[in-house]
UniProtKB/TrEMBL annotation:
Name of the coding gene: Nol10
Ranges annotated as biased composition (Basic residues): 646-670
NUC153 domain span: 464-490
Family listed: Belongs to the WD repeat NOL10/ENP2 family.
Record domain Nucleolar protein 10-like second: where: 351-399
Keyword entries, A-Z: Coiled coil, Nucleus, Repeat, WD repeat
Subcellular location: Nucleus, Nucleolus
Species per Swiss-Prot/TrEMBL record: Motacilla alba
Region annotated Disordered, chain positions: 510-539, 617-670
GO process terms (BP): maturation of SSU-rRNA from tricistronic rRNA transcript (SSU-rRNA, 5.8S rRNA, LSU-rRNA)
Comp. bias regions, Basic and acidic residues: 630-645
Name listed for the protein in its UniProt record: Nucleolar protein 10
Keyword Nucleus among record annotations: yes
Compositional bias (Acidic residues): 510-520
Main subcellular localisation: nucleus
Lineage of the species this protein comes from: Eukaryota, Metazoa, Chordata, Craniata, Vertebrata
Length: 670
């Protein structure tokens, strides 16, 4: 994401992943965000609305490009395509306006009494049903061109509505968490569902009353309802209880619900995630989590095929997802099937080829820890991404012979691989010989014991491929002089001795052929407990002894460092003094640093003692502080020079006046 456009274009030539990217529809985007997206019934046109400025764009799937764009007066809440193509469109806008468009453009504009949130079109009667911030459902007849009598509901507000495509039952979701069903023929309410109560289960946690945020019919009898708290309820219209309740576990309102019939899937979406799940069992089929928030989800219909998923997002780009598992692609993008087959055959390339991931420890080893916070390192998870060229340069400077060592190691590994094909004698590995010898001895003892007990042998640690590198790579060599090993070694040795004694006791018992009885078992446990307590005492003493040795070694190291510091000659260091300041001693700078570390209250008290600050109470009750600014050395010298200059001028004026008076007296006397 930090790459520039020029760098991205250069990567397209060599990056396989970028070359595989497909722009299915050219300029399939909005200037800022997209709010709603729909497909015409003939499948040729995709229409989307967004901002800013409010506009609608129509894309032709046969040409894979934009057909036209129209700007609107206000933002669109939702819209509906009434015809098979784009020739008849209705827009519900946020300013209570209802705008009609024909093939040539704007056709008519009217207003509804209250702010609308959703509407549905009743095809048999040519009525538009509007729901919104009112208890009434407004009806607009497009054949007569006038408003009809409204439907009076019990809800204070309504959020969504839908009409069943089979028997044309009108359903609306209210802010109280209920779904009201109306018969358009008699204009009477025929059913009421309390979805808010049914959405609360043992696993769900809600903070307020769930309202209805999404509604969708499936066939004649099924209906899916989405709540504002993130639950999806699937109903059979013949029952008031939901068949299944699916929770998104995000607590966000459900924005869209769609059905996929071939695999019996329900596709529900909130602002963060799209989930596809089985409508009978609720089992997740797959989920998609885009980078930006989701505003709407649309499935491309083509003779019952739902393979292309399009989303309107809080971003300029509108996403298109193709799921091959659901079936073949539509005819206008049939080339996707061939491309997906090729992508499955070819393996994926590695990510971040031009960057190297390093941790803080790697940076310290390379001497690049001072680059943390600069543009050369990009923080990511528990480390950083850095340019691979910079990494190679730093690696060469830190260890110039690393390549030669790596080359020798590879040659040695190749020779060992060729030697492995020959007949080999049992010998210890070159790395961790003591550990390997210990494992071989323990393995032999366990094999003898398992043969007597007729048990299966456990797999050998030396022959296990998962631990093979531990006996081949010198980086895994156990450092017996380290502090961790010396503190753990007493415990490990005591445990191995205890295990050997236990094996010996079991072998003796089996040789004598004694059966396990309660009384001897109790005696053995007592003996074992006494032995374990003795072992613990011995182990504690050994650990204390090792700790004492470690402290002595640290003391010797400190003494050696002190001797080295005393022997080293300190070179003189030069410090630059700022202009206008006079150096007195190092104590002044130390005092300044201590003063800066103090709180404001302490500094004010100190300045008040020195006389540079005067704090007095006023009549209202507040405090008044008067500061005397400290003069710098340069200002002090300048003021002294001005003072001397003024004194010299005064003396000159006095001497001049004295001479004049003497001349006047001499004339009078003459």
């Amino acid at each position: 994401q930090w790459l520039s456009d020029r760098k991205k274009r250069a990567l397209q030539k060599k990056d396989v992943d970028i070359r595989r990217r497909i722009e299915l529809i050219q300029d399939f985007e909005m200037p800022t965000i997209s709010t709603k997206i729909k497909v015409s019934r003939d499948g040729q046109y995709i229409m989307a609305v967004g901002t800013y400025k409010p506009r609608v764009r129509c894309f032709d799937t046969y040409q894979l490009s934009q057909k036209f764009e129209r700007c609107l007066d206000s933002e669109v809440v939702t819209f509906e395509i009434l015809s098979d193509d784009y020739s008849k469109i209705v827009f519900l806008q946020c300013g209570r306006f209802v705008e009609f468009h024909s093939q040539h453009g704007h056709y008519y504009k009217t207003r509804i009494p209250k702010f609308g949130r959703d509407f549905s079109y009743h095809y048999p009667s040519c009525d538009l049903y509007f729901v919104g911030a009112s208890s009434e459902v407004y009806r607009l007849n497009l054949e007569q061109g006038r408003f009809l009598n409204s439907l009076q509901t019990e809800a204070s507000e309504s959020n969504v509505c839908d009409i069943n495509p089979v028997h044309f039952l009108f359903a609306m979701g209210t802010a109280e968490g209920k779904v009201e069903c109306w018969d358009p023929r008699t204009r009477n309410r025929v059913g009421l569902l309390d979805c808010a109560l049914s959405s609360v289960t043992a696993d769900t946690e809600i903070e307020g009353l769930p309202s209805i945020s999404a509604l969708k019919f499936d066939g004649a009898l099924n209906m899916a309802v989405g709540t504002s708290t993130g639950q999806v309820l699937l109903y059979d219209l013949r029952s008031s209880n939901p068949l299944i309740v699916k929770d998104h576990h995000y607590g966000l309102p459900i924005k869209s619900i769609q059905f996929q019939h071939q695999l019996d899937l329900i596709i529900s979406a909130d602002s963060r995630i799209i989930k596809m799940w089985n409508k009978d069992t609720g089992k997740i089929f797959t989920s998609m989590e885009p980078e930006h928030d989701i505003n709407d989800v649309c499935l491309y219909p083509n003779s019952g095929m739902l393979r292309i998923i399009m989303t309107a997002n809080e971003a300029p780009k509108m996403n298109i997802y193709y799921i091959p598992v659901l079936g073949p692609a539509p005819k206008w993008c049939s080339f996707l099937d061939n491309l997906t087959e090729e992508l499955e055959e070819n393996p994926e390339s590695t990510v971040y080829d031009d960057y190297k991931f390093v941790t803080r420890k790697d940076l310290e080893n390379l001497g690049l820890s001072h680059l943390i916070g600069s543009s050369l390192l990009r923080a990511y998870m528990h480390g950083f991404f850095m340019d691979i060229r910079l990494y190679h340069k730093a690696k060469m400077m830190a260890n110039p012979f690393a390549y030669e060592e790596y080359r020798r190691e590879k040659i040695r590994q190749k020779i060992e691989e060729t030697r492995a094909q020959r007949v080999q004698l049992k010998k210890l590995p070159k790395v961790n010989k003591e550990l390997a010898l210990k494992l071989i001895e323990e393995e032999g003892e366990e094999q003898q014991f398992s043969k007597k007990r007729k048990q299966k042998n456990l797999p050998s640690l030396l022959k296990d491929d998962r631990f093979k590198v531990m006996f081949e790579n010198p980086d895994f060599q156990v450092d017996e002089q380290s502090e961790e090993f010396r503190l753990l070694n007493p415990l490990v040795s005591k445990m191995s001795e205890k295990r050997k004694r236990k094996l010996k006791i079991l072998e003796e018992l089996e040789a004598q052929g004694q059966e396990e009885e309660e009384e001897p078992e109790g005696k053995a446990s007592d003996a074992e407990s006494s032995e374990s307590s003795d072992d613990e005492k011995g182990w504690v003493e050994e650990v204390r002894k090792q700790r004492k040795l470690l402290r002595q070694e640290e003391k010797l190291k400190r003494q050696e460092r002190l001797k080295e510091d005393q022997q080293t000659l300190l070179k003189p260091q030069f410090f630059e003094i700022k202009e206008g300041e006079e150096f007195r001693s190092f104590k002044d700078s130390a005092k300044k640093q201590k003063l800066m570390k103090k709180t404001l209250e302490d500094r004010l008290k100190l300045e008040e003692k020195l006389g540079t600050l005067n704090v007095s109470d006023t009549t209202v009750g507040s405090k008044q502080a008067t500061f005397k600014l400290k003069k710098s050395e340069q200002q002090r010298k300048q003021q002294e020079a001005e003072k001397r200059h003024r004194q010299e001028r005064k003396t000159l004026r006095r001497s001049a006046s004295h001479l004049k008076s003497r001349r006047g007296r001499g004339r009078l006397f003459h």
